[in-house]
Amino acid sequence: MSEKPKGKMAFYWAASCGGCEIAVLQVDAKILDIAAAFDIVFWPCATDGKTRDVEKLADGEIDVCLFNGAIRTSEQEYMARLLRKKSKVLIAFGSCSQEGGIPGLANLSNRKEIFDTVYKENSATFPENPDDLRPQHETEMPEGTLYLPVFYDTVKTLDQTVEVDYYLPGCPPEGDNIWAAVTAILEGKLPDPGSVIGAHSTVCDECKRIRTEKKIKKFYRTWEIKPDPDTCLLEQGLLCCGIATRAGCGALCPEVNSPCIGCQGANEGVQDFGARLISALASVIDSEDPEEIDQIIKDGIPDPIGTFYRFSLAKSLLRRKKQTV
Amino acid sequence: MIAPKDETRIGVYVCHCGTNISAVIDVEALAEFARGLPQVALARDYKYMCSDPGQELIKQDIVDKKLNRIVVAACSPLLHEATFRRVAEDAGLNPFLVQMANIREQVAWVTDDPVDALAKAKAHVAAAVRRVSKHEPLERRSVDVTPRVLVVGGGIAGIQASLTLAEAGKEVILVEREPSIGGHMSMFDKTFPTLDCAACILTPKMTAVKDERNIRLLTYSEIESVEGAVGNYKVKVRRKARYISEEKCVGCMACIDQCVFTKPKFPNEYDQGLGLRKPVYMPFPQAVPPVPIIDPETCLQLSKGKCKQNCVEACGERGAVLLDQEDTIEEFEVGAIIVATGFKAFDPSVMPYYGYGRLPNVYTSLEVERLVNAAGPTGGKLVLRDGSVPKRVVIVHCVGSRDKNYHTYCSRVCCMYSLKLAHLVKEKTDAEIYNCYIDMRTSGKGFEEFYNRVQDEGVHFIRGKVGDISLVPPENGEQSNRMTIQVDDTLLGKVRNFDVDMVILAVGLEPQPDTDDVRRMFGMSCSTEGFFLEKHPKLAPVNTANDGVFLAGVCQGVKDIPDTVAQADAAAAKALALIDRGTFELEPNTAVIDEDNCSGCRICNNLCPYDAIEYDEEKEVSRVIPELCKGCGTCVAACPAGVITGVHFTNDQIFAEIEGMLFDAMPDLLAV
Q1: What ipTM does this complex have?
Q2: In which domain, by residue range, is B413 found?
Q3: Residues B42 and B79 in one domain
């Protein structure tokens, strides 16, 4: 046998929707190449495995861990720390682990507000929860003490929890990019630690639409207009985030007349996706009159945080809504 | 030059600025604090860092102590950044490896408590130290300058600047959009306070422009576009068709005499519509160039295509009348530009209570200038529209000026020209003349003396703003054009009403209506009232933010003729200094676009206030033209991809500075 020994790979799913788990399969038949190159030592979604199996591994025994999802509970934090210790290379896989993703928008609330909504104010639960019961970390039962993970006030990214070696952006990451990352790992051609494995330009680079100088008089919601298929969507007043979003998806959404929502995150070197986008759009609103500008924004962008920080609130300079003590 | 990879050794210099800084900030404690900051090799405090010994101290340390970064904690960088950069350069250090911490204006002068002041000063110094460690050595670049100047506007400012430049042997392209040069000054009868005849002092200069070989005069022309940057502008000028060849015409006026309109029929713009002209006309007798013009809107041939074309016949073999002439575009390369586009007189028809445009005997001051002018529509006779001579005249000051509904600024010239008009009207009609003023502002050379003279001549002065002008009610069923003036006399403390038969509105000066287009075209800024913004109100009054563009005359701000002429010469001198030297040094702190990663989204394309960004259609990337870029950072902030870097203002440098400012909140930053 001249084959080199197989590497060890792990996958983990923290605070995320599960799309990243499916996305791994986007590499299609190449999944067999991955299976040929790696032993999958831990992948709760696809294979049987227990935390204690991971705990038993030697430190650094896992060659690569693809970790998707943000950190919102104590259990996720424990798994992040554990997998960090056991892995040579830890990759933040997808938006949630890289920038907080959609779960990160929960940082507009705190635990109490979230629990109030879920267990009290929600019409689906309220009548059935007259005693206002809430999940408890510890519950005494005749058989002994039961534990639930602690639900944190703030959603954190993976790298706000443990050191991360590489980032694979996207919600979810594209198959080609996943394969490129795996190839880089197999060939030992990884970039400098801390890098995002991806392009250094933005979605406009991959978008075939015709762009001219921009002046925007009104923003439209997607259902309000039928956009011209050849002209830049932003120029048509659709808030396309492609200008600020890292390339790599092939401009999938604009291709089908739908504005980019920014899932690939900020471009290389950009600290705060939303701030960049706001600053760019503010520059091209076609009015000099402050009141008119306010109106253009109010009418066309009813949910600024959800628009500008849809995926990146937890990672942004804002991070979360101010906590009142 | 010290290689940037050498160990970073920062020298921090805390200036006492006499007692300006040291009276509030404990400078020794500040220097001691600086010594504890990472990468700081030495820190000193000194009485005057900007003095020769202070500068020498830094130079010596750079050499002896092998410093390769300098922080000077002193005054605003506006004041002495250039000084300390030169110090570094003299000592063999790249000048851009210097950073100033402004502990005077931003700390000592605005903080009373010494404890607070020291804490703030520490933050400034920590910020500067962290920032300077991220500085890169930068090189200035030099460009050649085309020795030719474009002067825009042929009023007294443009004329004066052009003549001065021509006198120095420089080529000038003088562009005027009206058919003749001369501007507003050529409309005036006399000038205050000397009562010189405006035409007598202006027309020799106009003729000199025509005769000067170094000046290429383009009247009835407008700037189409300006490209390029300081030292090398490419200018396109649209020469509007005047339908009479400037080269062939000898100014015999036969075309005007023979026009099918035997009598002048159309309002003459130059006479403020008070006089009439034919479709083919000379704006005024001393016009330069002395070539008639045909107005295509009233000329029968040009507007309707049907006319006997007597003018063509009258011109005969000379063939100067060219009814098929079209606009042409001429291109010029110039190294500097003087903008002297003048002003517009305030239009009082927007103030209904003054009745302008509704009451026949309400005039603007500019109209009265034409009425008292010997070359004007009445031959210098001051008569009302019905031909009668006014007996009681009121001059209403501050019309459109010092009025929060219109212009809050004082137009500066109105008090004086009102006195002049009072004198001239009195001289010509012996009428009773009332000046209704808010304040008399006569603070120029010989102005107060002129005011006294006009008072002695029996002109009345009422201190108060005119509130209303209305027709006197009909007497015996007959409606006259006499008017009642209502004025709140603030000296008497009561409202006065009196009748007059002529009102002169002393209208203010305001920016030209196309100011914004002109501003964009020449890469300048405007102040809030709309006048072009000088680079510095005291220290660079004729420069603009665009290094090769200079300002002269009222387009920069209201002023009288002497000030305009002085400013025009100043602008000419500045332009001369630029083109005579032959080269221009560019600051290196421009914006740079990483073309490899620019996705060509075009967000930045129309943001640049200096038009320094071009879009490469082929490569689909945007590009900054370094000669035009001022490093303002607008595009840097706007680039959604973050691929535009402000050289000397990189993210790294700015974040380092912020972190330094927050040193007491981030103690680990201080770890050496």
Answers
A1: 0.88
A2: 344-510
A3: yes
Q: Distance from B602 to chain A by nearest Cα, in Å? A: 6
Instruction: Say whether both A181 and A230 belong to one domain.
Output: no
pLDDT at B668: 66
* A162 and A32 part of one domain: yes
User: Torsion angle, CA of B481/B486/B487/B492, rounded to 10 degrees?
Assistant: 120
Cβ–Cβ below 8 Å for A214 and B602: yes
Does residue A320 lie in a domain region? no
How many domains, chain A? 3
Closest-CA distance, A199 to chain B, in angstroms, reads: 9
User: A201 vs B599: CB contact, 8 Å cut-off?
Assistant: yes
Q: Tens of pLDDT along B484-504?
A: 999 999 999 999 999 999 999
Q: Which residues span the domain enclosing A212?
A: 203-308
Partner-chain residue, chosen from B596, B607, B642, that has the shortest CB–CB distance to A269: B642
Residue-by-residue DSSP string for B534-577: PSBTTTBTTB-SSTTEEE-SGGGS---HHHHHHHHHHHHHHHHH
CB contact (8 A) between residue A267 and residue B641: yes
Determine whether the interchain pair B603/A283 forms a contact, defined as Cβ–Cβ distance below 8 Å: yes
Arithmetic mean of pLDDT, B19-32: 97
Q: CA of B528, closest CA in chain A: separation in Å?
A: 13
Q: Report the number of distinct structural domains present in chain B.
A: 4
Answer whether A6's CB lies under 8 Å from A41's CB. Answer: no
Q: A220, A265 in Cβ contact below 8 A? A: no
Same domain, A257 and A298: yes
Q: Who among A213, A266, A277 is closest to B602 (CB)?
A: A213
Residue B651 is nearest to which of A211, A271, A283, comparing CB atoms? Answer: A271
Q: Do B447 and B540 reside in the same domain of the chain?
A: no
pLDDT level of residue B3 (50, 70, 90 thresholds): very low
Kindly state whether residues A135 and A66 are assigned to the same domain: no
